[in-house]
Amino acid sequence: MSDYFPADLWIEILLKLPVKSLIRFAVVSKSWRSLITSPSFTSLHLSNSKKNRAILRHYDERDKQEHYLLLELLAKNGAFAINISSEFEFPMNSQIGYYRIVGSCDGLLCSIDDLFLFPSQSVILWNPSVRKHVILPPAITNPMEPHIVVLGLGVANGVCKVVRLVYCRKHYDYGFGVPPQVEVFSLGAGNWRTVFGLNIKLRILEFMWSQVLLNGVVHWLGYEPIDDANSIDNSSRSSILAFEMDNEVFGEVMLPDVLASEDVTSMCLFASEGSLALVKYSVDFEGKACDVWIMKEYGVRASWTKLYRIDLVEGFERVVGFKYGEALLALKGQELVAYNPESMRSRNLGIYGTPRSFYIDNYVESLLLLNRNIEPAEGDLNGDALEG
């Protein structure tokens, strides 16, 4: 028999391997290292990665640490079951307990240590699968006057991008002016560049902003003040600001009138089964509750539909996300539970943390950032790390 093994066959075999194995093989030879860290192989491996995974972050007050869990999600009897396949150690220490997670995309997590206090802190891109991270260079726009910074993470044509919006406080009132100053960081280029000629009317929710990435578009909840001489208060119109990562164009996704007239601080934006979803919190004589809405046809305002209401009893604090038709809820007692809207029952998932620290998003293993010093730690070679 011939000892010759076709290169194409080698590649097909390597593409089926998990990231942990590929890290080991990358130190076998220079040729294997060159192949495994090449952009084309990284892209092909990403497309073959498992899709039924999620990453979950929670902050445990007992050890004062952020914990990142890789979860296998399995549909089971109209609900879902989770299997914790590994845990990752975040490479940075927060000044206030835990980082704000901007978003997750193609195996990368974007974080910033800016919750409430530090709007100009460095932005971090981290790939937990390969235990590599990069701290982005200082941004271009850092005004001296009070301002807020809003970030978004996405991928366009295989290139990871971070968009940064800077809203400066206006001198004549307590609000932040529009349009914001905008700059974009591309991982391939390694620098920030300013985006000009923008007509952004929406202000993104100060400090408590969060993004939703869907179909290559980043979404944030925002609002537009309404100048009405007959109004007795400072009214505003709530809406969704959208940024297309590929052509770097801003747009707007309109909310239905019943939501557009609500205070933006009472709402949170999510992704659910490939659609935009929105949770509207309310308090009335019946108690505290939240309504779950979904946009059935993207971009069509009339397709917004209210699915169900959750009565926030039994210590329910906030909605964390949605998986397989169930809502993930954080409890004041620091438990994470899954709520089934059909049975209106919840079950404990055995994961604990402060209610505001919970974050969950879809996750795929990726080789991105592996070529930034790929020599593995001793634990990686011995099989003691990077499980999953």
TrEMBL record:
Pfam families the record matches: F-box, FBA_1
Q: Which organism is it from?
A: Salvia divinorum
Q: Which residues form the F-box domain?
A: 1-44
* Name of the protein: F-box/kelch-repeat protein-like protein
InterPro entries found in the cross-reference section: F-box-assoc_dom_typ1 (IPR006527), F-box-assoc_interact_dom (IPR017451), F-box-like_dom_sf (IPR036047), F-box_dom (IPR001810), SCF_F-box_component (IPR050796)
Superkingdom of the organism of origin: Eukaryota
